[in-house]
Each structure stands twice: as C-alpha cells, then as structure tokens.
Design brief:
The protein is mainly beta. It has one domain: Immunoglobulin-like (Sandwich), CATH 2.60.40. It contains two helices and eleven strands. The protein starts with a helix and ends with a strand. The model has no long low-confidence stretch (mean pLDDT 82).
Length: 194
C-alpha cells in the first residue's frame, strides 16, 4: 500500500511540474544558459569557437608563382592568403565580430592591414555577424570595399613563411576576437608546414 501511495505521489509531482509553464505561461526565464532565456543581450552567454582554416591562395617558388589551386600545402618561403572560419554555437546571432591575428613565431611574417581596414567575420559577405549554429569566414574590409587574394578569393590573413622553416614545423597563430557588446575570445591554432 505504501508503494502505491509513493507511486501516486511521484506521478502527481511530475505532472504538476511538467504542466507548470502551461498553467503560468509568462514565467521569466532568467538563467542565461537556458535556451529559452529572454533576458537582455548583454547577459546572454555567447559561444564562439575556432572552426577551421584553409589556404585561399599562395605565392611560391622563384620567381614567385601564384598557385590558384585549392592545395593546402604550405612550404618554406611561401606567401599564404589564409581563410579562417569561426562557429557560433549558441542559440542566437552574434554581431559585430572583428578580430586581429598575431604570431610569436619567428617562422612567419604577418602582413599588417592597410589603414582603415579590419578583419571581420560573418556568415555572408555583407554582414559582420554569425547566425545561431552557423559558421562564418573572415574577410578584410574597409567600408564597402573588400580585399581579395590574387585569385579573387576572400581571406583572413596574409603571411610569408620563413625560408629557414622545415617540413613538419608548426606555426602557432593567435586570433583575438570581439563582438559589438565587448565580449572577447582568444583562439590559437597551428599551421603545419609540408
């Protein structure tokens, strides 16, 4: 008999909590980790992640030749236009995404951006935001003008690999990212020489 009473109590309690939102539909969701959170944008937890990178274009050999293929090999002495992708892993858009790229490695020389240009990330060329669950790529931009590699591909950074580099060397690139409300992320990823 006791077991039956406990079972009835458990079933009743589950039913009560399960239908709580139907009984009181305007409950405020105040936990920023809750997928149905309705608080202000500043309190929403943004999850932006490094996703991938690939060679957009490269200049190699003597005299320099432009390689228009999609070959991702990087060798000593190459000049590389690199694509970088980020992924938005939260349940809402992240806007105003801008970044800088650095490296402490003596095996690479990163070209500085021209005055008034910046690195932005978006899931479309005309935006600097990445929608929920989407990936966005980096592009160099100033106003409405975009830089492109010699093969007209967009890219995130241009660098030259030292002629002293060896096959198998790893070059650590650091990506510092911010959004329009001041959130910051730092990512590190390696580019391996072939």
């Amino acid at each position: 008999m006791k077991r039956l009473l406990y079972l009835i109590l458990v079933v009743f309690t589950i039913q009560l909590f399960d239908s709580c939102e139907k009984i009181i539909p305007d409950l405020e969701r105040d936990n920023p980790y809750d997928t149905a959170y309705v608080g202000n944008d500043e309190n929403k937890i943004r999850v932006l992640e490094y996703y991938s990178h690939n060679v957009a274009c490269k200049e190699e050999g003597t005299p320099p030749y432009i390689d228009y293929s999609d070959e991702d090999t990087i060798k000593a002495g190459d000049k590389i236009w690199l694509n970088i992708k980020l992924k938005n892993s939260c349940n809402f858009d992240i806007s105003g995404i801008r970044a800088t790229i650095t490296s402490a490695s003596n095996l690479v020389s990163i070209e500085p951006l021209s005055s008034s240009y910046y690195l932005k990330f978006g899931d479309a060329s005309d935006t600097d935001d990445i929608g929920s669950g989407k990936t966005g790529w980096g592009e160099i931009k100033s106003g409405s003008y975009y830089h492109s590699a010699p093969n007209y591909n967009s890219y995130s950074v241009v660098f030259t690999v030292s002629s002293d580099a060896n096959t198998g060397d790893k070059i650590l690139l650091n990506l510092s990212v911010s959004d329009e409300i001041g959130n910051n992320w730092d990512f590190g990823f390696n580019v391996t020489l072939d």
